[in-house]
Design a protein that fits this description.
The chain has about 300 residues and is mostly helical. The protein has 13 helices and five strands. About 50% of the residues lie in helices and about 10% in strands. Strand 4 and strand 5 (about 220-230) form a beta hairpin. The chain starts with 13 loop residues before the first helix and ends with a helix.
Length: about 300
Amino acid sequence: MKKLVLAAAGLLAVVGLAGCSNKTVVSMKGGKISESDYYDEMKKSASGKSTLQTMIITKALEQQYGSKVSKDKVTKEYKKFKTTYGAQLSSVLASNNMTTTDLKNNIRTNFLTEAALKDLKKVTDKQLKKQWASYQPKVTVAHILVEKKETAEDIIKQLDGGADFTTLAKKYSTDTGTKADGGKLAAFDNTDTSLDADFKAAAFKLAQGKYTETPVKTSYGYHIIKMVKNPGKGKMSDHTKDLKDQLYTTWLSDSTVMQQILAKVIKKANVDIKDKDLQDVLSSYVSSSSSSSSKK
C-alpha cells in the first residue's frame, strides 16, 4: 500500500473526551469506567498523545489547504487503490486495521500534506539543475536474463548476426514474468527503485533500437538489454514540471523536510492546548517555549 503521511486509521477521539466527565464508557461488576477516567489514562499514554498530535495536524491542514483538495480527486485516487488490489483490498485494509473511510481520509490527508509542501517549499534553480543532472525520462526496454555470462555473450553474438531479440528472449530468458512478451519491462525513469542501479545505468545509455554489447551483471544474473523506446533527455527547460514533481516526491518521503513543513502549518494554526498535561504533544514540531507561548 502506498505510504501514508499521517496514519488516521483507528484514531481515538481523545479531544472529544476532554470536556466530558461522568458519562459511563464501560460498566461491569466491581464498578465502571467513565469518560473522564478513560481520558485521564489516554492522555498519559504515548498512543494517546500521538493521536492528539495527528488530529491537530489534520485539522490544521484541512483549514489551510482543504479548498485545494476536491472530493473527486480523493475518489479518483481511491479507485486506483481498488484497481491495484482488486478483490484483495478488503483484506489489505483489515491487515492494516483500516476501513474504507480510513483509507479515503488518509488519501485526503496525503493530498493536503502535498499541498502544504508545494505552498511552503519552492523549488530553486539550483535544485532544478541538480535534479537535472540525474534526470532520465521514462524509457521502455526489453531484456533477456540468463544465469551464465557465457550464455549472455552467445546471445549477443546471435543478435549481432541478425537474430530477433523477441525470439531469443522467449527461448533463453529465465525471467518468466517477461519472456512471453519478448522480455519487455514496464516504463521507468531515474526515480525507479525496483530495478538494479547497474541495469538502469546501462539502459539509459542506449539509443532507441540498440542493445547492450556486453552482458550487464546484477544479483539476478546476466542481462542483455534492448532499448524499445527512448524519447531522449532533451533540454532542461522541456522537463521543468517533471523535475519539480520528482523533487516534491522525494521531499514527501523526507522526514526532516516534512517535519519543517508541518511545523510551519502548526505555527500558522495558532494551536492553544488547554490541558497542561498535553502541552508537550507538539514538541517534535515546535520548541517548548513556542508551545507554552500559545497558552492564553
